[in-house]
Amino acid sequence: MFESAEVEAADSFALNTEAETLYIGLEELGDIGVRIDNSGRAIFFKTTDGEITDTKSIELSAEVTSHYQTFPNMLMLGQSDGTVILVEYSFDISYPGDVRTLTPVISYPLGKEPIEVDARGEALTQVSFYVDEEEAAISALTADGRLIYASYTLAESMLSDALVVEEDSIDSITIDYPVSRIIVEPGQQNLYVAVETGGLKQYRLRGGLDNEPTELLDGKVIAEMGMLLGGTSLIIALEDGEIQQWFQVRDENGVSNLTFIRNFEGQGARPTKIAMEKQRKGFAVADEAGNITIYYATSQNTLATFNTINEKVTHLAWSARAQNLLAMDESSTAHLFDVANVYPGVAWDVLWGEVWYEGYDEEDYIWQSSAANQDFEAKLSLMPLSFGTLKAAFYAMLIAIPISILGAMFTAQFMAPRMRQSVKPTIEIMEALPTVILGFLAGLWLAPYVENHLPGVFSFLLIMPVGILICAWFWQYVPNRNRYDGWEGLILIPVVLGLLWLSMTLSQPIENLFFDGNMQLYMSTEWGIGYDQRNSLVVGLIMGFAVIPTIFSIAEDAMFSVPQHLIRGSLALGATRWQTMMWVVLPAASPGIFSALMLGFGRAVGETMIVLMATGNTPVMDMSIFQGMRTLAANIAVEVPEAEVNSTHYRVLFLAALVLFMFTFVLNTASELIRQRLRKRYAAL
After folding, report:
1. Where in the chain is the domain with CATH 1.10.3720.10?
2. How far is the C-alpha of 551 from the C-alpha of 393, rounded, in Å?
3. In the chain, which segments carry CATH 2.130.10.10?
4. DSSP, residue by residue, 405-433
């Protein structure tokens, strides 16, 4: 999964070029190529030997003076009469005699009639466009130095299925600098103009072109530029070979500005062509020396660099699945390359480091593995999942450790034998409760209850210790004959239940008195602390409940197994039972107690169903007890059934499983080493 791309030269052949080539392309599997020239012909050929399989004519109204290509297979032709025509090629697939047969088709997404961009009829020397199902935008540069931007609404005719292109607005300004390339941003927010003598100008399209452009790149000469899949990132190839990625980032005032994100090392020669992958955030750059370099934007990886051409590359195209790359040199020779590049987006920096993703205002750790469209940039950071795993375990142990260890201490050394015979098996049976039931209760009952009684939950943490101390103070005045030594735990049960009832009863009055009747809203507005219903507090309560039996059972056995001669000797020397517990029993039982804690922590780390149903499954890195999380185990359970087999997502999920295994393996190994040291230390006792 971490290997670089492998490139192999497949075929090389001369193309019969009677006219200047504007564009080359490939069908999905790379079997058929297409070449469109300035005479208006689309020539389809086999990529094994260049044999022409079909030729289609494009209906032009004048001489072609410029062109612009974009996804999926669209080419806009600017003409000498100020009009443009949009052409798209595709292939009808059939299987006569079980043989895959491709039939080329030329279509006109905006209609066969040329669209007038310049009413003066000047030749269009540069052209760019954006089109979707409802709207289109065209930008052009005329021969007399005017920059034009026009927007259109697309609708179906009421009388037929024909597409109607209605002009919404058209704007133009006169510029006094030479232009090498223009690109209109999808969404019609910005227009980027590469200055031939150096620099990049950004025109904001809201309100027209007459605004002052933003100057970028400090006069550096742009050799080539293009938009990545999705139309968010601008890839710029500088004259010195450096490749840069830019996209819009909001500042502290909410204003979007084109911002430099990352750069890619070039080969030193002047770039001549950029080809974007059609389904991923990868791209290839060719230069004058014949070098072709494959990059991946998200991971900032240089995947492969090769040169079997040794001539200037004039055209470059990917197949739809990025398994084939077609290059054409200045001698009109086509070169087909087979590319094995299955997992380009995976790198250690992507999995464990902060990455600046499209649409984000800064670098961050993000897990978002899928979306509704192909333009999506997969975000596969394992940091939020690992953080969530440790966070869930931390809060569970925070609740489980005091209850289970103190309970084990009392049960092993202070509880009456008859009561211990009932309590210990009861708690051990709790471990058999299905975690899916606990998760179900947490998600549907506990989470709403905690949300509605949040002040009461925190009040209970204060009221319970105070209440038990008061009971202990009164207990000293009970005559010895009525104390029932060893049964104190049973006597405290109604006390704890009563204190719990009192806390929940006081919840609403406390909320009205101190938090204006809504503690969650008060925390958000006054303290800036958000509250999710399914949060770490709920997970800590319910998963702590699930972990308690594991820790209690092993720790209690360890304490109960401490040799009686040590305990009797301590008592005979005048130590109290509590002093004996602290300075004799606990040290002697420490290896077992530590093992209990580590097993409990391992159980919390590997827990799946509780965190799946009680956390909200939000992969955020926030230590707040009022926010949720997503753990490695829950993420695997949720996404593996939906992941495409052998995809990058699928492989990363298995890597997440390996990370989870390593967590538990390292933890158990470390705990065993510490346990052995503790055993040696206290073996003399």
Report:
1. 383-450+531-681
2. 14
3. 6-347
4. HHHHHHHHHTS-HHHHHHHHHHHHHHTTS
Burial class (CB in 10 A: 0-12, 13-18, 19+), 480: exposed
Q: At what angle do helices 383-413 and 648-681 cross, to 10 degrees?
A: 30
Nearest to 284, CA basis, from 356, 209, 337, 222: 337
Residues 613-641: pLDDT tens digits? 888 888 989 889 999 899 999 999 999 98
CB atoms near residue 96 (< 10 Å) = 7
Fold of 6-347: Methylamine Dehydrogenase; Chain H (2.130.10)
Tokens 């517990």 belong to residue: 581
For 10, other C-beta atoms within 10 Å of its C-beta total 16
Q: Print burial letters for 255-286: b (CB count within 10 Å at least 16), e (below 16).
A: eeebeebbebebbebbbbbbbbbbebbbbbbb
Amino acid at 419: M
Give the position of tokens 């370099």: 293
pLDDT at 282: 92
Which three-class secondary structure state does DSSP give residue 193? strand
Using DSSP's 3-state secondary structure scheme, residue 445 falls into helix
79: nearest Cα among 168, 150, 142: 142
Name the token pair of 329: 């040199």
Residue with tokens 């949009």: 86
pLDDT of residue 548: 94
> Which pLDDT does position 210 carry in this prediction?
74
Torsion sign (Cα): 640, 644, 646, 648? negative
Residue appearing with tokens 């999995």: 351
The CA R_g of the chain, rounded to the nearest whole Å, is: 35
Q: Name the CA dihedral angle for 548, 553, 556, 560, rounded to a multiple of 10 degrees.
A: 170
CB distance 322 to 277 below 8 Å? yes
Measured CA to CA, the distance from residue 438 to residue 42 in angstroms comes to 65
Residue 64 burial (C-beta neighbours within 10 Å; 0-12, 13-18, 19+):
buried
Residue 549, helix vs strand vs coil: helix
Give the domain 383-450+531-681 fold: MetI-like fold (1.10.3720)
Q: Please report where in the chains the tokens 């989870």 appear, as a residue.
A: 660
**Tokens 């739809």 found at:** 320
Q: Report how far residue 608's alpha carbon sits from residue 432's, in angstroms, rounded to the nearest whole number.
A: 15
When pLDDT is cut at 50, 70 and 90, the band that residue 481 belongs to is low
Other beta carbons less than 10 A from residue 52's beta carbon: 12
Q: Comparing C-alpha atoms, which of 335, 404, 471 is closest to residue 7?
A: 335
pTM (2 decimals)?
0.86
Q: What is the DSSP letter of 527?
A: I
Instruction: Please tell me the total number of residues recorded for the chain in this structure.
Output: 685
| Structure letter (DSSP) for residue 267 | -
The two three-digit tokens of residue 546, written as one number? 């699930």
Give the CA count within 13 Å in the CB-facing half-sphere of 204: 10
CB 258 within 8 A of CB 244: no
Q: Answer yes or no: are the C-beta atoms of 156 and 97 closer than 8 Å.
A: no
- Helices 488-514 and 454-475, packing angle to 10 deg: 140
- 434-446 b/e (C-beta count within 10 Å ≥ 16 → b): ebeebbbbbbeeb
